[in-house]
Design a protein that fits this description.
This protein is mainly alpha-helical and 90 residues long. 54% of the residues lie in helices and 7% in strands. It is built from four helices and two strands. Helix 1 packs antiparallel against helix 2. It is globular. The two termini are 15 Å apart.
């Protein structure tokens, strides 16, 4: 299931390399989803801020959607439950 911890662990090495993936697994991580419609003029500002580690340090946040670890975890659980029900898994 996309964005589940299992999915993150499987895809992390390809995204950041094996050594950094191990560090992230050891130190912990938080999942965040930042959705910015790229047709908005603020999209470039959001992407630059995210890449620089200052995702909360710029304006126009009302134009994007930011989902925290708790919200991502809840969405993953709900989606997994729907899939389990659909395919008769318990």
């Amino acid at each position: 299931m996309q964005m589940s911890d299992k999915w993150v662990y499987q895809n992390l090495p390809a995204a950041v390399g094996r050594e950094l993936a191990e560090t992230i697994r050891d130190d912990g991580y938080a999942r965040h989803i930042l959705y910015v419609p790229f047709y908005l003029p603020s999209a470039i500002e959001h992407v630059a801020a995210l890449l620089e580690g200052r995702e909360h340090d710029h304006g126009n946040h009302h134009l994007s959607l930011h989902y925290t670890e708790a919200e991502v975890a809840k969405a993953v659980e709900e989606k997994q439950a729907r899939l389990d029900k659909k395919f008769g898994r318990t």
